[in-house]
Amino acid sequence: MPHSYRFLLPLLALSSIAMAAEPIIVPCDQPVKSKKRGVCVNKADAKDFMALSPGVSWYYTWHFTDTNNAPAAAKMTFLPMVWGNQPAMIEGLANYLKSNKPPYVLALNEPNLKGQAFIDPKTTADSYQKIKAIADRHRIPVVGPHMALGSSDGDSIKAMDPIDKKQVTYTFMNPFLKAFFHYMGKTDVPAVAAHSYGEYGELKWMVEMMHKEFQRPVWVTEFASWKARDAAAELDYMIQSVDLMERLPYVQGYAWFKDRLADHSKMSLLAPEKGVLTPLGQAYVKMPVHDPEVFYRLPGRLQLESYTTMQDAEMTRASDPEGFLEMRVLDTKSWLNYQVFTESPKTFIANLRFAVSEGTVVALMSGQTVLAKFKGTTTGWQTVTAPVKLPAGKSSFRLVSDHAAKLDWLEFFDK
Predict the structure, then answer these.
(1) Per-residue b/e over 82-105, b at no fewer than 16 CB within 10 Å?
(2) Is residue 12 over pLDDT 80?
(3) What is the mean pLDDT of residues 158-187?
(4) 13, 396 in Cβ contact below 8 A?
């Protein structure tokens, strides 16, 4: 094996994949609708939903009935929410479910925060039980409560904590949730949910901590960078955050806040005009999924942000004028896995678009076998060609580099 690869974990590795029950095979250039991706909606019309529909699969309005009514062609599912513990809200859900069967019901918006549901852990548990009893009749799981991550003393709910046996001001959501689970006893709560408005590091810490602490799937039903300095910073935050939540298997759903915000336009997915996406909205719709059921049909151009799994790589806005996003690998410990489909065994001509220092080699590999090498001939963005033989049907490959690299796309042509 050449000296460059003695130290490598493979970056492009090819291996056969056992037949999945229902693989999703899509053209390389076709957007893939994320099963996880949602949006918080105030008021949207049919044009708005159609603009969001290529990448977004669900929405909610903090209400138990849908007053927006996405057109069927958008294929966007409404999830009802019982916002607080008012009897009329719980009764409203019961009436809605008589003629509708959503895949999930959302329950109780920020019970720990003043101005929101603002109810103590015991009342939250009692309300959740009532909501669950209604949803159980229709065999619909209930996700919630949907927690504010933290709050000031003056904005936080106070109660006698059943675990610490003393009066507590719940400025952090975890003690509140632990008290909630104490009151829930053996009643099943299928997922935990929370909101984040800080920077990317906060969101990453929050979802990883919640899964570790509560051993359940995680939903992030409101997120945005509230204090991002400008639209570019908001976009960078969104790219990192969506990439994270798409690749973490225990993040079950997430929703951007929100469709339109007149006073925070940098956070809006939709422009003031109906059916027009902002640059942020365009990116939210186009963000790749990392779904193990998705395979990209070749020949075609495979965008390298459309990985299935990865290690020690980073997704950013593309510095290549030809690209939307790029993957950055730092060293030989980095790798990216991809899934493809070909009708028959074939040797393709492959073009790799990458930015490297002169002499850097990026390899397409199967296990420890190098299937193709792409060697940088200059410094900066360039396109390098190599033949690649792929088997028929579904397969995966891995990309690795012997130095830091920026990766944009890999295009396959019939030989």
Answers:
(1) bbbbeeebbebbbebbeeeebebb
(2) no
(3) 98
(4) yes
pLDDT at res. 92: 98
What pLDDT, on the 0 to 100 scale, is given for residue 263? Answer: 84
The rounded Cα 145 to chain-centroid distance in angstroms is 20
Conformational region of residue 23, where left means phi above 0, alpha means psi within -120 to 50, and beta covers everything else: beta
Whole-number Å distance between alpha carbons of 84 and 375: 59
**Alpha carbon 93 to its chain's center:** 27
Please give, one letter per residue, the 3-state secondary structure of 211-275. HHHHCCCEEEEEECCCCCCCHHHHHHHHHHHHHHHHHCCCEEEEEECCCCCCCCHHHCCECCCCC
Neighbours of 184 (CB within 10 A): 17
Alpha carbon 22 to its chain's center: 21
Global pTM value = 0.93
Strand partners, 60: 40
Neighbour tally for 402: CB within 10 Å: 23
- Is the pLDDT at 8 greater than 60? The verdict is no
pLDDT of residue 257: 98
Per-residue pLDDT at 6 exceeds 90: no
Identity of the amino acid at 212: K
CB 335 within 8 A of CB 309: no
Other beta carbons within 10 Å of 26: 17
CA 401 to chain centre: 26
* Amino acid residing at 88: A
The answer to whether residues 83 and 105 touch, using CB atoms and an 8 Å cutoff, is no
What proportions of the chain, in percent to the nearest 5, are helix, strand and coil? 25, 35, 40
- The pLDDT assigned to 17 comes to 39
Give dist(CA 305, CA 409) in Å, integer: 8
First to last CA, the chain: 26
Sign of CA dihedral 94, 99, 105, 109: negative
Are the C-beta atoms of residues 284 and 256 closer than 8 Å to each other? yes
Q: At 240, phi and psi to the nearest 5?
A: -65, -45
Can you tell me the mean pLDDT for 7-18? 39
Of 105, 113, 111, 112, nearest to 86 by C-alpha is 111
Using the predicted structure, report yes or no on whether residue 16 has a pLDDT greater than 70: no
pLDDT surpasses 70 at 7: no
Q: What is the pLDDT of residues 335-367, one digit of tens each?
A: 999 999 999 999 999 999 999 999 999 999 877
